Amino acid sequence: MIRVLGIETSCDETAASVVALDGRSTPQILSNIVLSQIEEHAAFGGVVPEIAARAHVEALDGIIEAALADSGVDLADIDAIAATAGPGLVGGLIIGLMTAKAIAAAAKKPLIAINHLEGHALTARLTDGLDFPYLLLLVSGGHTQIVAVRGVGDYQRWATTIDDALGEAFDKTAKMLGLPYPGGPNVEKAAANGDAARFAFPRPMKGSAQPDFSFSGLKTAVRQAATAIAPLSDQDVADVCASFQAAVADALGDRVARALTRFRQQFPDKAEPALVVAGGVAANRTIKATLQGLCKQAGFSFVAPPLNLCTDNAAMIAWAGMERLRAGISGENAADFVPRSRWPLDSISAPMVGSGRRGAKA
Ligand code: KG4
Ligand code: ZN
User: Fold this and answer.
1) Per-residue pLDDT of the chain (362 residues; tens, 9 = 90+)
2) Which of 10, 87, 150, 356 maximizes the CB count within 10 A of its CB?
3) Which residues are CB-contacts of 2 (< 8 A; sequence separation ≥ 6)?
4) Is 229 helix (H, G, I), strand (E, B) or coil?
5) Contact 88, 142 (CB under 8 A)
6) 166 CB-contact burial (10 Å; exposed 0-12 / middle 13-18 / buried 19+)
7) Please, which residues have CB less than 5 A from ligand 2, an ion?
């Protein structure tokens, strides 16, 4: 039996978890504690790095203690500690990684520095036992990426956003319309009563041969439409939200359809290909329905892990640590590891010279 303690502090969740694997059965999440800081950031309409860092300092030791207590495992019986070392807000990363280093040194345990995106990328193997390769769509407040997941530490980023992340576009749209933070769930709620055909918003990148995403033009179109009809009634807000959501689903669907085709071409022998979603935006029902439809059409299975494992958590970090331990690629010198605010997933197998330093290319 291998047991890994995971620690996650890269954004606005302070999280710790213990995951166990005995090699014969499916992995077990023995504990999974997530403290969200949403209320502390709500007044500012977004995550404030300074506030996030302070909140991690205040909460992290208690969260780790709670995760150990909940799991019923003593620190002495933990085999390794896995901590998010990037990408993310550097204040939070420093707090999580330094805490992990201190525990690892005091308890004489190996420390594994984990890329947060790798945590998202490997979650479907924890929850659904998925085999490589598969396609990942990560849509959160900070990331919008399509990644071919080929193995542990073997990732190819096929698409990313050239401006805003999709969750960010939802949050900014909500803010413009006077809806509370976080915007995604509130935009979806308002959209349920709206007319998606009232505003013909642009579908950014639709039809483009370039694989990437873009959402800032859509955000500008929403602002212009809202300004033109101000002051907005509840029905106006609902119509803008529904039209925005339809445009997003359409644009996202176009990008994903392109990636499904590419996956077929690149992995022609893969018998049951799968699209996995991760990130908070995966909660959106209109988006989910669009993706399910595309998968059905293309003969892919659609894998959506439970939402609490799709959004930021430490079980995915512990699991990524477990995968690395198992694959024998847990890294030699994690005790010297420097947090990386930028750390692209596809540099994991071949680290770039200078990565981890400020200004390293993402
Ligand atoms: O993965 P996540 O919980 O955290 C980080 O990005 O750190 O994603 C949060 C993002 C926010 O931008 C939020 O507005 C968005 O996911 N989101 C949604 C929905 N629920 C959360 N976006 C659209 N529809 C939703 N139902
Ligand atoms: Zn995340």
Assistant:
1) 999 999 999 999 999 999 999 977 789 999 999 999 988 888 887 889 999 999 999 999 999 999 999 999 999 999 999 999 999 999 999 999 999 999 999 999 999 999 999 999 999 999 999 999 999 999 999 999 999 999 999 999 999 999 999 999 999 999 999 999 889 999 999 999 999 999 999 999 999 999 999 999 999 999 999 999 999 999 999 999 999 999 999 999 999 999 999 999 999 999 999 999 999 999 999 999 999 999 999 999 999 999 999 999 999 999 999 999 999 987 656 778 999 999 999 877 654 444 444 433 33
2) 10
3) 20, 21, 22, 23, 79, 80, 322, 325, 326
4) coil
5) yes
6) buried
7) 140, 312
The amino acid occupying position 227 is T
Which residues does ligand 1 sit against, CB inside 6 Å?
11, 140-142, 167, 170-171, 182-185, 188, 279-281, 283-284, 311-312
Q: What is the pTM of this model?
A: 0.93
Tokens read off for 46: 């977004």
Distance 140 CA to ligand 2 centre (A): 6
Residue-range domains of the chain with CATH? 2-126+309-341 (3.30.420.40), 132-304 (3.30.420.40)
Burial class of residue 225 (count of CB atoms within 10 Å of its CB; 0-12, 13-18, 19+):
buried
Task: Say how far apart CA 67 and CA 79 lie, in whole Å.
Answer: 15
DSSP 330: S
**Probe residue for ligand 1, chosen from 140, 241, 309 as the CB with the greatest number of ligand atoms within 8 Å:** 140
